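Record type: monomer structure entry
Structure origin: computed from sequence
Chain ID: A
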Amino acid sequence: MSTLPKVAWIGLGIMGSPMSENLIKAGYQVTGFTLEQEKLDRLSAAGGTVAGSIAEAVRDADVIVTMVPASPQVEAIAYGPEGILENAKSGALLVDMSSITPQTSVDLAKAAKDKGVRVLDAPVSGGEAGAVEAVLSIMVGGEQADFDEAKPLLEALGKTIVLCGPHGSGQTVKAANQLIVAVNIQACAEAVVFLEKSGVDLKAALDVLGGGLAGSTVLTRKKDNFLARDFKPGFRIDLHHKDMGIVTDAARNVGAALPVGAVVAQLVASLRTQGDGGLDHSALLRAVERLSGAQV
């Protein structure tokens, strides 16, 4: 019998499915629940166990991992008679890997403590590719002892795993991450349009830029999206729009000015209103092309 903790996984989307599968590959017993039957079938095919409800999934779990889109979804699965807190056993560790507001994480930790459940907020960066390859960056908020307990499990999902401070700190760092990523994608998109309109070989230009100071993980990961105009979602514009709302609101609360971030947040919002919310965030290129006179 495995001595590894039993894991419940709630939320099997673009990120959650490959992450849960990496835990299974690492030897963990994973019981999962999500709303889409095809995602449950995928978990079962990978060697996981399918639950019929959140309550069933978490009842015997030592560790509960959640990966859902936003704060309302976290609250929906955590609270209420059929939710995690009412059905998890005392002493269980809840690791919320969703990207939500810092305050939601703080409130969840307080509510969970009353139920005897410990909580870490542990949002990730790296996109679908990072989830598949188990090389995510994981930024964690919570207690040191809980982090130490969770770290072996997190090491099956990512490479850079850091406790950033108390509850909510992981979400604050994730908000900063999303600010940097969005501004970086926007800069790359503007460079792509500039280069193409100048008649430069785009592939050659991006190759050489990637080797210099302008190089970044964003450029490396998204270069092919730009070249092929392939915007199949790895991380959807809809979700980045949500994250830009989180960071701009949090920054306002602490008195931090985000002049460039505010502009990029508006550009992300405009993409959604033009029907591009389901595309990958590299589709910020489409916004720059429209502003530059292209019909896309």
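Annotation 1: The two ends are 56 Å apart (CA to CA).
Annotation 2: The mean pLDDT is 97.
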